[in-house]
Amino acid sequence: MKKRILVTGGAGFLGSHLCEKLLESGHDVICVDNLFTGRKENIAHLLNNPYFEFMRHDITFPLFVEVDQIYNLACPASPTHYQFDPVQTTKTSVHGAINMLGLAKRTKARILQASTSEVYGDPEIHPQPETYWGKVNPVGVRSCYDEGKRCAETLFSDYHRQHNVDIRIARIFNTYGPRMDPGDGRVVSNFIVQALQNKKITIYGDGSQTRSFCYVDDLIEGLIRLMNSDGYKGPINLGNCGEFTMRELAEKVVFLTESSSELAFLPLPLDDPRQRRPDITKARRELSWEPSINLNKGLKYTVEYFMKFFTNIDVESYSEKRKAG
Known about the structure:
The protein is α/β, with parallel strands linked by helices. It has helices spanning about 15-25, 40-45, 80, 85-105, 145-165, 185-195, 215-225, 245-255, 280-285, 295-310, 315-325, and strands at about 5-10, 30-35, 50-55, 70, 110-115, 165-170, 175, 200-205, 210, 215, 235-240, 245, 265. Helix 8 packs across helix 10 (about 295-310). The longest helix is centred in the first third of the chain and has 22 residues, at about 85-105.
């Protein structure tokens, strides 16, 4: 059945892929983004589609539209971006959630919150199941994002309990792929851009900290399955169970790009988790979902994208322009 679907943060990395997939499935899509971290280039190929509508809007202010489903993806997701204006980051997570939940309540729409593995903080349990409450610093430099997302989960749960709003909560682990912002400071885009320019690849810490990396197509499929699942509301982990050290990731990128880059080790940022890997038992059971694209294949696709679009850019200048709006 054709639905009218709102995607907040729809011009971002994940949002643009989600909009594309929903259009391919025959839905009407309203893409909302204030373009703080989203880019028009990500959705340019969708603008002529009669079933796609773009609205430049900040969800910390109310929005009045008629929709059947809401995917709430709006929020800066990389440390570089969410620490640039931490107060606004918290407002986006908290005020934005309140506004979108209010819209869902009024229109009786089902609403999905794009939460994050950062709600687990620097975990004491490995891998992380949804039952783990996390170890998060509430006053650190990452708190605007970590605690903002935790509060959003609270708001979603309370709107469901108090107002019977039909909610879904996805905890997204590290995701990568085409349309990543080359200047956003995330590890995959950082490594690829540095390798393509034959610059030193900067690894924070000794490179032994681990992450799990999910290719964007797999993640989008998981979000859609969760949204359309009957009864199961989450929270549910969506991510790839493959676990790699930062050194291993850097070495894979150097190999794929045939780069002459050397590895450079810098001090570990404050509150940076030592390890991160999802337990996706619930996703397998409730959604019949698990990733199908391994890191080698996903990195190959991502490197090809960056080689095509970003080999010749001045990344530092680009990043400064993005911050300036």
